[in-house]
Amino acid sequence: FKLPSDSFKYLGWCDIEEHGVRGNQLLCPRVREGPSEEELFFRKEEHTLKKRKPVTDTEKWEKRLQENWENCAELNLSFQDLGDLYQVENFKRILRRLIRVEKLWLVDNSLIDLSAIRLPRCRELNVNKNHFTSFKQLPKIPQIQHLSLAENNITTLSGISDFRHTPLESLILRRNPCEFQERYRQLVFSNLPNLKILDGIPKLPEDCSPPEVRFFYRMCTIL
């Protein structure tokens, strides 16, 4: 049986009439856009799409003010089910407006590249269970203190030194291929000397020693 909310399942929160909620008042909004009319027709779900009235420029501006993402300080945009390109673009459009966000969760969104996004005040970022393959694909986060990248596909530590000049204290890289790199913890701490916790384990004395260097000497015998 269909739930009473079934007719609203493809609507964004700001498309539902008669409410006075603003974007920065939501803890976990649904920001992705629904399928196109053509796709709904092929799914035989055209009944879920209400007839849309022509939107004036004034209404567009009012909707933008209602979203109010610029004033969000803490936001959870996890599990957005971003299956189509137009959904990803709408998602990134909102990320670009998060100029004051300090804590942000983007778990399990199939994200690949956010390098064009800047989050100037973000102190805590959780992007677990996405598809990042490099530190270069992360957003610009100059004030980051706690970064969680568990269950991505980061194969090497290349680019990790970009966080050397940030106040990063805690980093989680569990279940990434780079975790199996030889002398993994020592390499991370040598690139990030101010880091205090890696994968939930505080910095240990043995983590401070430099990576092993092997010296080969040429020997000769004097007869």
UniProtKB/TrEMBL annotation:
PROSITE patterns: LRR. The keyword Repeat applies. Keywords: Leucine-rich repeat, Repeat. InterPro entries: Leu-rich_rpt, LRR_dom_sf. PANTHER family: GENE 29133-RELATED, LEUCINE RICH REPEAT PROTEIN. This is TILB protein. It comes from Chloropsis cyanopogon. The lineage of its organism: Eukaryota, Metazoa, Chordata, Craniata, Vertebrata. The gene is Lrcc6.
